Amino acid sequence: MKVHAKVFKYGNDVNTDEIIPARYLNTSDPDELALHCMEDIDKEFIKKMKKGDIIVAGKNFGCGSSREHAPIAIKAAGVSCVIAESFARIFYRNSINIGLPIFESPQAAQEINDGDEIEVDPNEGWIINITRDKKYTIKPLPPFIQEIIQSDGLMPWVKKKYMEVNKE
Amino acid sequence: MGMTIVEKILAAHCQREKVEPGDLVIADLDLILANDVTAPLAIKEFEKAGAEKVFDASRIAFIPDHFTPNKDIKSAEQCKIVRDFARRFKLDNYFEVGEMGIEHALLPEKGLVLPGDAIIGADSHTCTYGALGAFSTGVGSTDLAAAMITGKAWFKIPPTLLFNLKGRFKKWVTAKDLILYLIGKIGVDGALYKAMQFGGPAVHDISVEGRLTICNMAIEAGGKAGIIEPDEKTIKYVEQRKQRNYTVFKADQDAAYEQELEIQLDDIEPQVAYPHLPENTRNVQEASDVTIDQVVIGSCTNGRIEDLRLAAEVMKGNAVADYVRCIVFPATQQIYLQAIQEGLVDIFINAGAVFSTPTCGPCLGGHMGILAEGERAVATTNRNFVGRMGHPKSEVYLASPAVAAASAITGKISHPEEVVR
Ligand code: SF4
Q1: Centroid of ligand 1 to alpha carbon of B300 (angstroms)
Q2: Fold of domain B271-418
Q3: Which ligand 1 atom sits closest to the C-alpha of A65?
Q4: Closest residue by Cα to residue B122 from B189, B25, B37, B206
Q5: How far apart are CA A122 and CA A111, in angstroms?
Q6: Measuring from each residue's beta carbon to the nearest atom of ligand 1, which residues come in under 6 Å?
Q7: Residues of A in contact with B277 (CB under 8 A)
């Protein structure tokens, strides 16, 4: 999964109420949630972004409630990946579990600006800022997490590991 | 090197002698929970996977508390998904409107979360049960769906921060002020991926209810879990309620903590957290002249009987300020009843406050007290993010029930001393 896209940049402590306001939580339909993605931090986001674009943010991205609606809204909006200095832990977990690629890279997150064009290759472990001609390396994910991602998320992994075993 | 209480609980749940921070484990779970916002997603995932049975119908708790009694048609439909699933799989712990309460107050009250348990909940404030000496943490709906099938979840063993509590609270200073003060000190990501353990001699003076308030807000510092080793108070609390057996774990003498911080309770004044982050704390005495439109007393943080007693003590014989709405919502039906029996409801209603049925309602800007553009509220809840209680341009100030009640009376953020002599 190599991506090449434009960046939408946000600051520290972007919380799940900003990513998907609670007033829309009476549905869990991804397409409906996507319509309100980032609404309380950037009303224009969903109008301006194109499929495949990337969110880059500061520290503690996704803090607040455990709502999986947040990474779902981001994924359904068509965002290809999120890069941040750090992630709130439930958001981190949820993203892995639903198959939204996310990367922690403090230096890249600090230096990449809004509107920059970047390229990301998670398998080879690098980010290139094309606009500024700069390359960053990303730490590989722990093997166990990779196993979940390679199975396309937690549920397919569980299916493979538990449900098919139980049937025998 | 010994183990911390969190390490011991998790080691026991993955049948290992020893675990260390950073280890990835798959642990057996004692209880899993979800609510009307998160359960429907988990159910969808469960069904998509083609699962036909749950791992244990007695260890899944579904509590529709966020938009209930159903706020609108969409909420009604979400709740129906949860109810139908509970009925189909004969879940022992489905709580319908009438017996439900806010999940994190209800489960400890019912004796469904116990010392030594490993618990996940599809709700970030699941960290609350650490107050009883359990390892308990919030996850998303997919984790929950997987756990409904397997009874297990994956964890990275967190490092532990130890807060050594010493001294005594001053009058009008509460567990809520302590946790707000700590979040102000270490920041909203100060405990990111870590367990926050509260220990030291003063912890034994804090009631179980106060401990639930403290652990409830560990997530507001980014924490994976809050935890307090069980003592006599814990045992007394759970013995009256327990629905199964439990094991008490305590840290080894030579357990390794990532950091130890000493906190003098005497140093703490009543706190208020300014918008829009729980870390923006100040002493109430230093609050600028903030006039308010609404006061909310309740939630999984401060909706227990002790909280209502404290608010009533401040409100007794006083009246809510003109043009201010004061909404009190007890966390469970049991607390509701007790508040009636103790005469607290009389005090609130005579003061001009609303006394609501248990629900999360206003806490997350769901219903039952939404803020308009430009309005301000003092709330005993746990989050003051942008738009949390309504319009994105409204403001929430977090405080204890005593400060909230005093503020309702004066119409601006106030120290309880200003209204109680
Ligand atoms: S009371 Fe508020 S914080 Fe607690 S579970 Fe309900 S919505 Fe969440």
Answers
A1: 6
A2: Aconitase; domain 3 (3.30.499)
A3: 8
A4: B37
A5: 19
A6: B 66, 102-104, 123, 125, 299-300, 360, 363-364, 381-382
A7: 13
The shortest CB-CB distance from A25 to any of B37, B156, B222 is to B37
Of A15, A21, A60, the CB nearest to B192: A60
Tell me where in chain B the CATH 3.30.499.10 domain(s) lie: 5-263, 271-418
DSSP lists the bridge partners of residue B119 as B31, B136
* pLDDT 10s digits, B328-354: 999 999 999 999 999 999 999 999 999
- Domain B5-263 class in CATH: alpha beta
Inter-chain CB pairs, A–B, below 8 Å: 138
Which of B128, B360, B383, when mutated, tests ligand 1's pocket best, judged by the most ligand atoms within 8 Å of its CB?
Answer: B360
Using the beta-carbon criterion (under 8 Å), do B50 and A163 form an inter-chain contact?
A: yes
* Max Cα-Cα span within chain A: 55
The residue count of chain B comes to: 421
Closest chain B residue to A67, measured at CA: B140
pTM: 0.90
> Chain B contact for A63, CB < 8 A?
yes
Cα–ligand 1 centroid distance for A74 (angstroms)? 23
Distances (CA, A) of A164 to A155, A156, B89, B209, B406: 12, 11, 21, 44, 59
The shortest C-alpha distance from A77 to chain B (Å) reads: 18
Answer for the pair A68, A20: CB distance below 8 angstroms, yes or no.
Answer: no
Question: Tokens for B355?
Answer: 């006394």
pLDDT digits (tens, 9 = 90+) for B8-66: 999 999 999 999 998 889 999 999 999 999 999 999 999 999 999 999 999 999 999 99
Half-sphere exposure in the Cβ direction for B117 (13 Å, CA)? 32
A63: which DSSP letter?
Answer: B
Neighbours of B376 (CB within 10 A): 18
> Strands, DSSP E only, in B11-151?
24-28, 31-35, 60-63, 93-94, 118-121, 135-138
CA dist A97 and B168 (Å) reads: 44
What tens-digit pLDDT sequence spans chain A (168 residues)? 688 999 999 999 999 999 999 889 888 889 999 999 999 999 999 999 999 999 999 999 999 877 889 999 999 999 999 999 999 988 998 998 888 888 899 999 999 999 999 999 877 889 999 999 999 998 777 777 778 877 878 998 899 888 775 554
Contact (Cβ atoms closer than 8 angstroms) between residue A107 and residue A136: yes
Q: Which amino acid residue places its CA nearest to atom 1 of ligand 1?
A: B299
Distance CA(A70)–CA(A62), nearest Å, equals 8
Cα–Cα nearest to A96, from B125, B219, B140:
B140
